[in-house]
């Protein structure tokens, strides 16, 4: 990879060539259903793909954050690589309990007033994980410098109230389970 940014077509081709774009009938972590699934770990297993995508996020926010934060699990790799490129440290927000919707910084990660956190994540579908990390950041008295993701599936409809950047915009329809046309048509469901 060169030091230039990937074009949208190049990023899309990388996702396809590495088997990260799956088609079928999927139930996402949000509970919604859709016909396109982006398997983030088929991206994150390849440093030659992850590095240039994180570089794009890092360049967009250079000079703004003092720390990079991500949610477990995909955000661990992204926070690390983005922080590496910015010369900053990376911290991880973990779930408070197995079934909760709250995250916290544990394992001695320090964050507080004076810190400006760049929150990174892999695939944005509803924004739930990112909102949980944003809440954990502000609960420690830190500011949010922005949000960066590899893939935005929302078509730009989610607003976090801070600067936002997505390496790739892949708008894809999704439905509540009760309104899913794939369920109605009897297409087998894969729970992700």
UniProtKB/TrEMBL annotation:
BP-aspect Gene Ontology terms: 'de novo' UMP biosynthetic process; pyrimidine nucleobase biosynthetic process
Reactions listed under catalytic activity: orotidine 5'-phosphate + diphosphate = orotate + 5-phospho-alpha-D-ribose 1-diphosphate
Enzyme Commission number: 2.4.2.10
GO terms of molecular function: magnesium ion binding; orotate phosphoribosyltransferase activity
Top enzyme category: transferase
Pathways per UniProt: Pyrimidine metabolism; UMP biosynthesis via de novo pathway; UMP from orotate: step 1/2
Cofactor (UniProt): Mg(2+)
Residues given in the record as orotate binding sites: 125, 153
Record-annotated Phosphoribosyltransferase domain positions: 53-158
Keyword entries, A-Z: Glycosyltransferase, Magnesium, Pyrimidine biosynthesis, Transferase
Binding site for 5-phospho-alpha-D-ribose 1-diphosphate: 95-96, 99, 121-129
UniProt xrefs under Pfam families: Pribosyltran (PF00156)
Biological function: Catalyzes the transfer of a ribosyl phosphate group from 5-phosphoribose 1-diphosphate to orotate, leading to the formation of orotidine monophosphate (OMP).
Matching HAMAP family: PyrE
Record family assignment: Belongs to the purine/pyrimidine phosphoribosyltransferase family. PyrE subfamily.
Protein name: Orotate phosphoribosyltransferase
Provenance organism: Tepidiforma thermophila (strain KCTC 52669 / CGMCC 1.13589 / G233)
């Amino acid at each position: 990879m060169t030091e230039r940014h990937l074009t949208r077509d190049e990023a899309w081709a990388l996702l396809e060539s590495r088997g990260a774009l799956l088609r079928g009938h999927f139930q996402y972590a949000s509970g919604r259903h859709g016909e396109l699934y982006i398997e983030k770990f088929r991206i994150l297993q390849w440093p030659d793909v992850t590095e240039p995508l994180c570089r794009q996020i890092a360049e967009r926010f250079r000079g703004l954050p003092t720390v990079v934060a991500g949610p477990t699990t995909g955000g661990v790799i992204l926070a690390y690589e983005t922080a590496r490129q910015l010369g900053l440290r990376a911290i991880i927000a973990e779930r408070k309990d197995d079934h909760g919707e709250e995250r916290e910084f544990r394992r001695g990660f320090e964050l507080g007033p004076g810190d400006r956190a760049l929150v990174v994540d892999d695939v944005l579908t509803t924004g739930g994980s990112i909102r949980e990390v944003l809440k954990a950041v502000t609960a420690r008295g830190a500011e949010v410098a922005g949000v960066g993701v590899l893939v935005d599936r929302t078509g730009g409809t989610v607003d976090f109230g801070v600067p936002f950047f997505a390496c790739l915009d892949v708008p894809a329809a999704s439905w509540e389970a009760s309104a899913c046309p794939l369920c109605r048509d009897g297409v087998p469901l894969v729970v992700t």
